[in-house]
Design goal:
The chain contains nine helices and eleven strands. It has about 250 residues and is α/β, with parallel strands linked by helices. It has two domains: about 90 residues, Ribosomal protein L30/S12 (60s Ribosomal Protein L30, Chain: A, 2-Layer Sandwich), CATH 3.30.1330.30; about 150 residues, Alpha/beta knot (3-Layer(aba) Sandwich). The strands form two sheets. Strands 8-7-6-10-9-11 form a six-stranded parallel beta sheet, with no helix packed on it. Strands 1-4-3-5-2 form a five-stranded mixed beta sheet. It starts with a strand and ends with a helix. The model has no long low-confidence stretch (mean pLDDT about 95).
Length: about 250
């Protein structure tokens, strides 16, 4: 029989509602995803599902019954990060990758200090669209399992694996890769269409506020920037879209 929860004080609901914080997501290894489309994406991926909460009027006949819990409207509101909760909210296990999984992949993205969830989600969407194999996260990046990141990725969140780069020396494992960075204040820079990429490359994007960390810039690399007029720099997601498009012409 399918479970039903009507109280926002239910211990399970209290526990899962805390997944709105990165600390609890980190400690539990769980994350929360809202919406029917996101559930479809999870079911098509290798992500393991912990629970599926559905509204009282939702037809869940096509879902695994042992994972489904019918939830009252107050409960769905308690779990949701939006003012208008969806009909489906999924609790799933984070899938952990490390850099060893990425070695040998052809096209990698390194995000250094991307703290805005909207930018992070958009860049993940771009990475999926332009055929990147993996994303490395370094520095003060927003938690990729932040609900706003997942929403901004617009159905592409589960298409590109990501791993944390905790030690910059780990980049030495990718020394054979062509590394291209967007160092805004470097004196020598080549426009994206003129950059020569190898079969295997790493594209590095830094935050709009701080750029790329010095420890990352110290690694051998090529530098590229987008020539602009009257503005010092573009939004990082906008810049990523332009550069990724130019790079895609080369592979």
């Amino acid at each position: 029989m399918v479970r039903k929860i009507t109280s926002v004080s239910n211990p399970t609901i209290v526990e899962f509602s805390k997944l709105s914080t990165s600390k609890v997501r980190f400690l539990t290894g769980l994350f929360l995803v809202e919406g029917e489309k996101s559930l479809e994406d999870i079911l098509e991926s290798e992500i393991e599902i912990r629970d599926i909460f559905v509204s009282e009027d939702y037809d869940f006949s096509d879902l695994p019954e042992d994972l489904v819990t019918i939830a009252s409207e107050p409960v769905m509101k308690k779990l949701s990060s939006s003012d208008n909760p969806p009909k489906v909210i999924t609790v799933a296990y984070q899938r952990k990758y490390d850099l060893f999984d990425f070695n040998g992949m052809n096209r990698l993205l390194l995000l250094d200090g991307i703290s805005d969830p909207g930018n992070m989600g958009t860049i993940i969407r771009l990475a999926a669209g332009f055929g990147y194999d993996g994303i490395m996260l370094y520095g003060n990046c927003v938690d990729p399992y932040n609900p706003k990141v997942i929403r901004s990725a617009a159905g592409n969140f589960f298409k590109v694996p990501f791993a944390t780069l905790s030690d910059v020396n780990s980049l030495k494992e990718f020394s054979s890769y062509c590394t291209v960075m967007t160092g805004l204040h470097e004196t020598e820079s080549v426009s994206p269409e003129n950059i020569s990429l190898g079969k295997q490359f790493i594209f590095v994007l830094g935050s709009e506020a701080n750029g790329i960390s010095k420890e990352i810039l110290d690694f051998p690399h090529k530098n590229t920037n987008i020539p602009t007029q009257s503005v010092e720099s573009l939004n990082v997601a906008t810049a990523a879209a332009i550069i990724m498009y130019e790079f895609s012409k080369k592979y």
